[in-house]
Amino acid sequence: MIAIENLVVQFGGVRPIDNLTATISAPVSGLIGPNGAGKTTLLNVLSGFVSPAAGKVAVDGRDLLALHPLGRVKSGLRRSFQTEQVVEDLTVAGNLFAIADHVVAPSERAAAVDAALAFTNLRGAAHMLGRALNLFQRRLVELSKCLIGQPRLVLLDEPAAGLTNEESATLREMILRIPGELGAQVLLIDHDVELIRSMCTETLVLDYGRMLALGPTEEVLASPDVRRAYLGEF
Amino acid sequence: MAARSILVDNLTVARGGKRVIHSVSFAVAPGRISTLLGANGAGKSSTVMAMAGAVPTDGGKVRLGEETLTGLPSDRIRRHGVALVPEGHRVLGQLSVEDNLLVAALDPSAAARKSGLDRVYEIFPELAERRRQQASDLSGGQKQMVAMGQAFIARPDFMIVDELSLGLAPTVVRRLAEALTLAAGQGIGVLLIEQFANLALDLAQHAMVLERGRLVYDGPSATLRENPEILHGAYLAQ
Amino acid sequence: AAVCGEGTGQAATGEPIIIGAITGKTGPDDFSNSTRAAKAYFDCLNANGGIHGRPVQYMVEDDQWNPEIAAQLVAKLVDDQKAVLMVGNSSFVECGANADFYKKAGITVVAGVGVPRECFFASAIAPTNAGPRVSMLGAMGYALDQLGAKSVVCIGPNIPNVGSWSCDGVMLLAKEKGFPASTILIDQGSADSTSVMLQAASSNPDVIVLGMSKGSAVPLLVAAEEQGLNEKIKFVSAASAYDLSVPETIGPGWDGKFYVNMEFNDLEATTPDNQNWLAVMDQYGQKSDPRDTFAQAGYLAARIAEKALMSIDPANITRETAGKAVADIKGFKSDIFCAPWYFGADQPRHNANSTTRMAVSEGGKWKVVSDCAPSPDPELADIRAFEKSAGINQ
Amino acid sequence: MSVENQTLARPMAPASTIRIPRELYAIPIVMAVFTLAVAVFANSFWLTAATSAVALSLSVTGLATLYGQLGLVSLCQFALVGVGGWVTLRIGHAWHPPFELSMLTGGSVAAIVGLIFGIPALRLRGLYLALVTLMLAGGFQTIIGAWGFPDGGAGFLGRADGAGRAMLPRPDIAQGSVPYFVYVSLIATLGLLISQWHKVAKPGRAWALIRKGEHVAIASGVNVLAYKAWAFALSGFLAGIAGALLAGNVGQLDGRAFTAFESLNLFALAVVGGVYNWYGAVIAGLLLRAVPALLTDLGIDGYVTIGIFGVALFQALATAPAGIAGQIAGLIERLTRRGARP
Amino acid sequence: MNFLPFIISGLGIGAVYALSGVGLLVLFRATGVLNFAFGAIGALGAHVAWQLMEWDYPLPLAILAAVLTSTLISFLYGRFLAPLLSYRDTVVRAVGTLALALFLIALMGVVWGELPRRLQFPTDQMYLTLFGVRLTFTRIIALVLSIVVVSGITLLLNTTRLGLDMRALANDRDLSAILGVRITRTETAAWIITGIFAGLGGLLLADLVRLQGTFLTFLVIPAIAAAILGQLRSLWITAFAGLGIGVAEALLTPVDWISPYRSAAPFVIALVAVMILGSTAQAALKDR
Ligand SMILES: Nc1ncnc2c1ncn2[C@@H]1O[C@H](COP(=O)(O)OP(=O)(O)OP(=O)(O)O)[C@@H](O)[C@H]1O
Ligand SMILES: Nc1ncnc2c1ncn2[C@@H]1O[C@H](COP(=O)(O)OP(=O)(O)OP(=O)(O)O)[C@@H](O)[C@H]1O
Ligand SMILES: [Mg+2]
Ligand SMILES: [Mg+2]
């Protein structure tokens, strides 16, 4: 459960997050909003790359902001980035080891990496170099990295951007397995409303730093405010 | 200007020493929207990057009417009227939003620059608010708007857009779709790469499907919409 | 015409005698003039019967002002090529890098131009020149005696064993004679000459002594002239600035105001050996080889080596016999030297050339202004004591 | 965590994801062959040149680790070689301990200095960092120029007066030039193994992430500061050992040989040698010392040598993006692939 | 101790740093290349001027020939060689110019050797006296020139199309090409401009400091300190930093215990500045 209280982020004159209060508790929840609404910024606050000007964030009751970014990773926070960040000259397995090195005990690393590869069906590609991967495979590697070392909270920034419908469907099935099999909560950003609708039980809509709506996805998407501001319907 | 088409003739492209496009031929006609579909890794980006001179070709030709584009540097191709919006919202991060747009304006006259800017800001009012902001500080979607704006302001004869909706909110995608339809109406040829096949097929009159670097369909988009199995086959083949 | 060796006019054809040399050609300054002159002399010698019929094979290597390379090259010359003597060496770094090696290898060095302290404090190295410190103190002596120096500033390069060594001599002399003196050590890489001159002028000296290579001395003089210091203060320099190009480079503003020490005779002196040197250069050297004081040093080194080798059995020229022959040299006379040169066998250090002259910049040329005078360097005490005990130069 | 969370970690036959890379075997073998060939065939001149070359390749491998692995450019590596040499000489002259002890101290001090030099780098990247390190090299040049290297005398600076310079004795087991060359090769091989191990193991992966982006690295649990600092310390250590070995080769060092320009040159040749393969460092070492020695041996004018170097440097940069080592690697790969086909 | 004279004297050398720093930055901001050969290119021009004056050609002709030579070298490298490295990272592109510097050092060494030379202009004989120190007109010209250069280039970069193209190019060459920026033309223009600056700077340095190939070549290293203070971006800060460094270096001259180390001043100042600026994380973010 992520409890956000009066969160403010300020970059010079811009306030990408403006006094946001929200509690997100579904196993897989969505985060949507227009471009520049502050979605990535919120993820950056959660992972510690941006220090908020004010406010509180608690995950499962623990004060998140008190933790150093590395501490957050150690305690189970995982994230992917809006532009994929696979290391070109490491193999797929190497990319996973790069995180396993720091969050899994030495004797269990190989097993943890293998399990993550199995989860995302990447075992066959384990020895491919990062640079030879296509976008879908890269997104899968990013997802696999989030599964290593007992994750508690997985943050995904547009994990399906650029994927075809079939590919997003595959990805969705994998993401949906995460809470059950790994016990981690997932929060994901995407602009594909259908994808959000089909996988998130709860959705938070941001609009220029403020909360526009929060609740069960169907309700949220049906709300007139959201239809107007985000979907452009009248 | 006589309505010329871009003719891609037996194009072959290698990336990292491996052939990823095998003798692909097609045409992009002026005044209409064409779309190039295919699974990830099928070679869509490689095809259009080669057309724009941003990656070297390994064989074949790209022509614009009578002129040969293959072998020209990418800035020359742009000046021939073929504007590419590359994948992955790339912008000139150290420049302001407005400078990003102005640098892409090919007509140097002050009036043309002004009207070009106005037009882009009309499509993306978000950018007008941030015209002085450094582009690296934009959100992902805002960068994509800048990239699209850079194509619009060049007043090209052809626009090639790689991953149109990538990272854009539905409202913005809708605005863009309208802008592209308008552009096609004014005689501009558009080649669209788009992950949402439905959106692409709705917009386009003409469609092509790439499968592992080979063209497996080239025809009206309506046919493809009615026979989704062609597309599914291509997507699953990967 | 050039006179060398036995003057037979017959080319030497016997088994070559290997002589090596290390010079600093590429780097902050070109120091190869000494070895060029020595080469010309050996060519002349080879064309005139060589050493009792055996030609000298003179192998010169460029240390590029890098001690590591100097050490590599000495291994090549001494270990690989089996040189029997080193002659005409002229380098900023070589003595420091190789002194120990020479001693271990048992090879004797008749250096042309020794610069750092190590060249004058080694048992196997005997330079023909006086060295920057002796030369600077020679200039200092002239400033005291002839220019009436009352207060002195010494400017030297901030190079260990070169600049501080020289200026320390001036300070020591100042203490002995009781005149105020101060030292400024400068980084040769520094671009700011004006500040150095302002600093020097701030203690109101009447003489400034320079101990730098010509490349660094010229900018200092330029800066001094810019500030009008040439009108108020006399400038004297060690022989390192005694280069034919310098008076013309610094221009007429320095006429009669910039004095320089000469370790050897006037370059244009009409004395026989100096004329022979010029003849050798003309006949056997390159046109482009400079005819300067360093070339005189190299010529003399070659002649000393010749004299030593001539004295031994040509069939038995080894590192040992050649070294011994050089060590035995005493009273080697040339009108280019002020006093006869000797090696000083068994001495822990060598500095035979310690009597020098002075010249002044005048109309784009150097004009000799003094006779030979012993350098008043206090550090020469051991040398003087040895000379006395051996009955040399008395 | 609860039991069902462990599903991921279910033990299975782990895919052979960790292999001992071929290089770790190749390094000792190749180095042994090279050492033997030089020791048997080289004369004194070539032995000293080869000793310097091999010693310097150790400092290049440190540089290559920083640049190839982290994308960090250090333009003060030769200054660190100087630091290592200075400390080794100082300790050697002052207390006459075994050479190894002076050398390790030299390496450690250089590692610490490298770490201190690296502190600005913990925040900076790219050219900006490169230039900051160049400033360090410039400052070092001035200071060491003024201080000078110890030459065996008493006192902190150890300037000799009176008698000639003292020389740093070589290790007891390697007095002669051939044994000393073998000794240097042995230490260089160890150094190359250490840095190669770093590349293929945990630190290498962490560095790869840092190269990708610091946020990416942090998100993977990498302690960016610690790993960067470690890279700088390792690089400094290797440079310091190289300095110690150089000091042992000649018996002394000269302050003027450690200019900022030398650091620039070291980096340039590291790139030409190739920073992505271990033998790139050896090639760079040879380029730094053996090739000039060859040109000197051929009697080529010093300036012409510099000019040839300039032209060759550009040629190599323009035609071999991964350096000469990269081209060799490409060749080997092509040959083995062809060999594997029939 | 009176420090005033040293301030005046430092302005002279400061102008030298400023001019070189700005010259470096112009090319860097336009093409992303840090030109280590800047000093060498200027030195070559200055040698040509010296040679012509030795042959008794008139001064204006010698100056013209010097600037033309430097511009030509810069143009040739920028047009034909630099593009070969254009896809490499900035440091490698900088190292490419190091190759040019080596080549030019060799050329000057073979043709002219390392003799001490002096390039003299009539302005050396004219001076103002300030606090007992003579400030020659050559130094004043250097000061004025650096200001003019900074203003001119600032104007060019910020207001002209060429300037915009240059900034775009320095940011991302590939993308700029895709956007239609004429790469070759823009880069060549930038190289020609720095060539002119290098020529002028070389002439002034040969007069103010000394005419010696390697020495002038390596003078870029302290000049880089000024560029670092300008965070490789600001021309004005770079120019003033250059002056400041020169003054600081001169001011240390009369302080006995530090005087021998004062040529480390540019480096130390740059390092301290980085430590301070670095902590605001600004420099780190803007860098790339
Ligand atoms: N730089 C590269 N080096 C090696 N292989 C590459 C490189 N770039 C692309 N490829 C490969 O080329 C093939 C085609 O890639 P391309 O990017 O053109 O596909 P795409 O259809 O645009 O897919 P995507 O939707 O992933 O962008 C893929 O298999 C990819 O792995
Ligand atoms: N470092 C920064 N400095 C100034 N403004 C910033 C900075 N980073 C982000 N912003 C601004 O903050 C706002 C929120 O950005 P953010 O990246 O969070 O948007 P987003 O919701 O992820 O949008 P998108 O869907 O387009 O990725 C944007 O308007 C952006 O311009
Ligand atoms: Mg975002
Ligand atoms: Mg693509």
UniProtKB/TrEMBL annotation, chain A:
InterPro entries named in the record: AAA+_ATPase, ABC_AA/LPS_Transport, ABC_transporter-like_ATP-bd, BCA_ABC_TP_C, P-loop_NTPase
PROSITE patterns in UniProt: ABC_TRANSPORTER_2 (PS50893)
Keywords noted in UniProt: ATP-binding, Nucleotide-binding, Transport
This protein's GO CC annotations: plasma membrane
Ranges where the ABC transporter domain occurs: 2-233
Gene Ontology molecular function, alphabetical: ATP binding; ATP hydrolysis activity
Gene3D superfamilies, sorted: P-loop containing nucleotide triphosphate hydrolases
Keyword Membrane: no
A Pfam family assignment: BCA_ABC_TP_C
Name recorded for this polypeptide: ATP-binding cassette domain-containing protein
Organism: Paradevosia shaoguanensis
Lineage: Bacteria, Pseudomonadati, Pseudomonadota, Alphaproteobacteria, Hyphomicrobiales
From TrEMBL, chain B:
Organism this protein belongs to: Paradevosia shaoguanensis
GO molecular function, one term: ATP binding
Family: Belongs to the ABC transporter superfamily.
Nucleus recorded as keyword: no
GO biological process annotation, one example: L-amino acid transport
Annotated keywords: Amino-acid transport, ATP-binding, Nucleotide-binding, Transport
Metal-binding in keyword set: no
UniProt-listed PANTHER family: HIGH-AFFINITY BRANCHED-CHAIN AMINO ACID TRANSPORT ATP-BINDING PROTEIN LIVF
Protein name per the record: ABC transporter ATP-binding protein
Residues in ABC transporter domain copies: 6-237
TrEMBL record, chain D:
Record flagged with keyword Transferase: no
GO molecular function terms listed in the Swiss-Prot or TrEMBL record: branched-chain amino acid transmembrane transporter activity
Signal peptide range in chain numbering: none
Membrane topology value: Multi-pass membrane protein
Transmembrane domains' residue ranges: 24-46, 66-89, 101-122, 128-149, 180-198, 229-251, 263-288, 308-332
Highest taxon in the source lineage: Bacteria
Location of this chain's protein in the cell: Cell membrane
Name of protein: Branched-chain amino acid ABC transporter permease
Keywords annotated in UniProt: Cell membrane, Membrane, Transmembrane, Transmembrane helix
Keyword Membrane on entry: yes
Any one cellular-component term (Gene Ontology): plasma membrane
Primary location: membrane
From TrEMBL, chain E:
Keywords: Amino-acid transport, Cell membrane, Membrane, Transmembrane, Transmembrane helix, Transport
Ranges that cross the membrane: 6-28, 33-53, 59-78, 90-112, 132-157, 188-205, 211-228, 235-252, 264-285
Gene Ontology terms: biological process: amino acid transport
InterPro entries named among the record's database cross-references: ABC_transp_permease, BCAA_transport_permease
Pfam families: BPD_transp_2
Cellular component, GO annotation: plasma membrane
Subcellular location: Cell membrane
Membrane topology qualifier: Multi-pass membrane protein
Top-level division of the source organism's lineage: Bacteria
One annotated GO molecular function: transmembrane transporter activity
Family: Belongs to the binding-protein-dependent transport system permease family. LivHM subfamily.
PANTHER family, A to Z: AMINO ACID ABC TRANSPORTER PERMEASE PROTEIN, BRANCHED-CHAIN AMINO ACID TRANSPORT SYSTEM PERMEASE PROTEIN LIVH
Protein name: Branched-chain amino acid ABC transporter permease
